[in-house]
Amino acid sequence: MEQLVGMLSNAPGGSGTNDYEQLSNKPSVNGVVLSGEKSAEELGLVSDEELEQTAQELEKKIPAKTSELENDSTYQTEEQVDQKIQETEGKIPTKVSGLENDSDFQTGEQVQQAIGDVEKKIPDVTDLEKSVEDLGKHVEELQRTVDSFVDGNEVAF
Hints:
By secondary structure, the chain is mostly helical. The chain is 42% helix and 3% strand. The protein has helices at 48-61, 78-88, 108-121, 125-151; strands at residues 28-29, 32-33. It has a two-stranded antiparallel ribbon with strand order 1-2. The longest helix has 27 residues, at 125-151. The chain is rod-shaped, with a radius of gyration of 59 Å.
């Protein structure tokens, strides 16, 4: 097989160059054509010093604590919570007696009165013993009367 060696000339397409400076349509940054040595300032870029200064200024503006933030929500601050506590102090009952009795619960006085009323209806134990004793006498008398009928004895009424 034979090798073909040669150069192409008059090939279609554009013409090229080996020299960057001879290029047409060179790239640019911020409207500045990239040709030769250009500084960041010439290209409209921020310098290291300006970048550091801007970072420091921004750090000063960023709050480090929540207390430094603007409260644009419905969250309450500590001062607002303390104020609400002070406003309600003394209004919240600490004893059952301080509550409104809306369930008809009985007070201690009412319970004692009811016990006293019941005690008045219960006979005294000594009266009860006497009544039992009298009842026993009546039962004995009744028994004698029944016995006399059974025995055939006459009983006077």
